[in-house]
Design a protein that fits this description.
The protein has a five-stranded mixed sheet with strand order 1-2-3-5-4, covered by helices on one side. By secondary structure, the chain is an alpha+beta fold. It is built from 13 helices and five strands. The radius of gyration is 38 Å and the shape is elongated. GO terms for molecular function: protein histidine kinase activity. One of its GO terms (biological process) is phosphorelay signal transduction system. Pfam families: HATPase_c.
Length: about 425
Amino acid sequence: MDNYPNHQFILLIPIFLIGLSLITTFFWTKQRQCLSVLWLGFALFSAGSVLLTQSLIIPTHFHQWSMLLGFMYVFTFIALVQSISLRLKRQISWTLCLFTLVLMEVGLFYYSFMENNLDRRVVLVGLATALVFSHQLPTILKLKPQHPIDQWLRLTFIMVCTLMITKAILNLKFLFNANFDHYFTHNSSWFILQFFVLMFSIIFSALIIASNVKDVFKVQQLEIENTKLQERLHLSQDMHNTLGHSLAQSMNIISNSKKNLNNQQILSMLKIFRDDLRQVIDSSSSLGATPPSTPILWGAPLRHRFSQILDELGIHSEWIFAAEWLTPPTQLECLTLQRVAEEALNNIIKHSHATHVIVKLYFSASQHLILEIEDNGIGFDIDILKVTNISVGLNNMRLRTEKIQAQMNINSQSGKTLISVIKSI
């Protein structure tokens, strides 16, 4: 028996291959589109398992394990070829692979349990693996990969395939007259074979993973560019829908006015343009942002902004918000409700002469989200709003609520004005 490395040291190679398979599989779980990496993980795990099993088998019991080991050997190469093929945008022939497996298993059964001929079992497995590995050679020879890494993968595949075909030819020569000892699981030849398996496994793993990583970065870059384009389109559409409508509405008011507008009316229109622009900027900058987790957090900035102003004017304010969302609103819905409340509160401060304001955000029994702003001011006549500077602001509020498919109602009389926004959830 030849001198050979320590048996425990030999076991490190299959254990390393199994560990490498777990790493590649973990990589696949992060990038599910990389199927070639998943098949590489199958190949590495199968290679490590078959080497580990064969290292632990007693040579005299090899015939009992030959069918299982033969299947694992061939499956290893099927998985590896499938991994390389997928990476190069091709598919293996499953019909050929299954046919090869069946023929090999029949041959292994015969030579294991009928003749107990180890030499011919080894030759059969070698021929089967060579056939599985080389059947993709004509297709891959015709390929011209665009990727430099894929080109190296293709060249490595051709080199390994050439070696396996050469070995298969030599196997055919010894198929019926071989008379050499294949109990090499306890000599230096077994270590050399494992070393070559390890070396080519690492090469193929490095090339397949590197090429997939490069593609992942390319896909991520395209996704970033697409996101930027979507944001530009969203901004353009928002500018058109919001500012465009306000401009058209203001032009219509000016053209239909029977007398010149005063400075206060013009200033009110300009403020609406400013608020619309602010809404567009807030909406665009908050794309993908998370809405406030509770109605209380939604109302906190609004309350902080207006409480001091209302107190200075001697207006008592109440702020009533639901504790939790029944259905969390979108960021745009949160912004719209906030802008409507701001507009209503600004009008109260400017025109109502109120002494008491109530702001409520709650859910009705019919599962509607309701925003209410109520004051005890002098009120106004809704029918004559069209000729006042408040009309533009209220119409703009109505436009915003329509964008989120909500309904705005206004009820006003001396001593009580109630503006409510009702949104189905």
